[in-house]
């Protein structure tokens, strides 16, 4: 079986410079690197792409969250859409060469996004996570149902650690998305190697 996907997502806490430095160290082990910075302007996001490039991260691995305009102008490979974003089908029709991921939180949303011809979905949050304090994780049962119903890859997100990767993969996930597990690790390179090994 092919290695499963590993997505790194910025957390909005680190400076883009520091995020780019970590991404530069570990990108060879990572499938995709997401700039997810809801408070930053288009100009700042463009700067983030430049910083990643300067650290050796290829454009083919960079994903812009929500901002289709920035993704297109910066010539990155992918955009990650949310519920409030532009319609995925419209984006796909207008920019057929861009890969589109979409964040979903239920089977209904996942099926809807597959019909809109997105390339993959993020499903979560699977476990409790510090990025969503007070909200219980959605668990593995619906993740398993979604992976069985969809033909496109389902990437699990939310509280995923080396200790629970196996059960996430057993539920059918095509990969995982990680923030704190890599960005807050004492040694990000050592941490990413552990994730990469467990995803093989």
UniProtKB/TrEMBL annotation:
Gene3D superfamilies assigned to the protein according to its UniProt record, in alphabetical order: Aldolase class I
Record pathway: Cofactor biosynthesis; thiamine diphosphate biosynthesis
**Domain of life where this protein originates:** Bacteria
What sequence ranges are listed for the domain Thiamine phosphate synthase/TenI?
Answer: 7-182
Where are the annotated coiled coils located? none
What keywords is this UniProt entry annotated with? Thiamine biosynthesis
What name does the UniProt record give this protein?
A: Thiazole tautomerase TenI
């Amino acid at each position: 079986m092919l290695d499963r996907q590993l997505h790194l997502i910025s957390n909005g806490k680190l400076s883009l410079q520091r995020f780019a430095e970590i991404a530069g160290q570990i990108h060879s082990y990572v499938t995709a690197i997401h700039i997810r910075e809801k408070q930053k302007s288009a100009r700042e996001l463009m700067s983030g792409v430049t910083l990643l490039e300067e650290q050796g991260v290829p454009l083919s691995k960079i994903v812009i969250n929500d901002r289709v305009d920035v993704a297109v102008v910066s010539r990155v490979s992918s955009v990650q859409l949310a519920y409030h974003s532009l319609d995925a089908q419209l984006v796909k029709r207008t920019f057929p060469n861009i890969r589109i991921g979409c964040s979903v939180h239920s089977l209904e949303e996942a099926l809807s996004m597959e019909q809109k011809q997105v390339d993959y979905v993020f499903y979560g949050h699977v476990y409790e996570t510090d990025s969503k304090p007070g909200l219980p994780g959605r668990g593995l049962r619906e993740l398993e149902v979604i992976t069985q119903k969809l033909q496109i890859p389902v990437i699990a997100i939310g509280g995923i650690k080396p200790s629970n990767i196996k059960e996430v993969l057993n539920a059918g996930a095509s990969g995982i998305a990680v923030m704190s597990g890599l960005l807050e690790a004492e040694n990000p390179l050592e941490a990413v190697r552990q994730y990469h090994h467990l995803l093989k």
